[in-house]
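ARCHIVE RECORD
Type: protein–small molecule complex
Small molecule: magnesium ion
Source of inputs: curated submission
Record status: active
Notes field left blank by submitter.
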Amino acid sequence: MSHDFIEDELSRKSVFKSEQLLSVDYIPESLPHREEELRTLAQSFKTLITSPGQTSHRFIIEGPVGTGKTAVAKLFAEQMVLAATRRGIRLNKLHINCRVSKSAYLVYLRMLREFRPRFPRRGHSPEELLDMIVEVLDEEDSYLLLILDELDYFIKQRGADILYDLTRLMDNRLNAPQRLSIIAIGRKIPLDEDILDSSTLSTLQRNLLRFQKYSSEALYDILKERVQMAFEKDTVMDETLQIICDIASERGDARYAIELLWRSGKQADRETSRRVIPDYARHAKADTHPELRKEVFATLPRQNILLLLAAARQLREIRSAYITMGELEEMYRTVCEEYSEEPRAHTQVWEWVQDLTAHRLVDTKRSGAGQRGQTTLIGLSDVPAEMLEDYLLDILE
Ligand SMILES: Nc1ncnc2c1ncn2[C@@H]1O[C@H](COP(=O)(O)OP(=O)(O)OP(=O)(O)O)[C@@H](O)[C@H]1O
Ligand SMILES: [Mg+2]
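STRUCTURE (tokenized, with ligand):
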């Protein structure tokens, strides 16, 4: 009889108990080292429940990568909705990623569709959508807690009008219930008088919560809980956790720490080891880079990935810190040919470069007026070219 590889695979033991609890979208019910932040939010938003319609709340959460901004906001919104429902208040929550919903129109459409799922995609102006949102909320006697996530990315490309328009929407209703409250999230939200009027600005500056990087000890507590949920008992060695926390504490990034933990577990499974030893964490570190975030690449169009691949490849080949726009486009055409895609024209490519810059995947600067003339130079933000190239090749498979 031939060897049964399927039975082999099925009977293989894994160090994971629930691997999905290590995925980037999973938010645990307890967030160690963010209790203080959750309490602050609860104190500020309490009146949404005690006296609904009285005030419209606006809050900003700022902080570096992987410090729990999204997790805290989502958990908080969920708990708010539960508390409101228990008291018969129709509070809805909506999380919008502004990196995906790239224009005010798309954000408003998402908001409206939360209540009117079949609302047509075209045919209305953004202002009309906003008015309709208020109408719908009034009609249904509902309140909305809106989370505008990764708003810094949006503002960089489109300005801050969206904040102004959304806050004015409520400020203009003097004697009607205040239906909309907002939590805006970003690594750094540019708040200055150039882009916002002074009253919007002062409200937001008063309600600003800044998340700090996690220390190695904080990361340890976070991972410890994850290990208990996601791994079989006694599989992950304490030394392994220590190493992961030390590596990730440089950035204070819980996402990176969790990814290292997950990869270490994967390696244990690959080697059919029942223990996740420190060496797997060291390997995981060598194989990954904190800037290579799966959820970012999942939302990038294929053509953008090809362009990024071209940048990585060209940078690796010429071994220089920057390439010119011309060099990039030349490599881009070769890459397109390889993947049987029609290369796009210069203006489109140029726009994509801006997009990738906003995603912090590439880094651009103007060249000095040297031999090359004035041109834009493109480099990689932080990831080694070779690592990025490998990663992209994997995605494109
Ligand atoms: N205190 C915590 N306890 C448990 N898990 C956490 C905690 N903080 C963050 N995480 C987990 O770490 C990952 C990253 O957190 P999150 O997505 O909230 O970061 P972020 O601050 O929004 O980062 P970014 O700026 O990149 O969007 C998530 O998987 C989240 O569940
Ligand atoms: Mg986030």
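CURATOR ANNOTATION: The chain has a mean pLDDT of 90.
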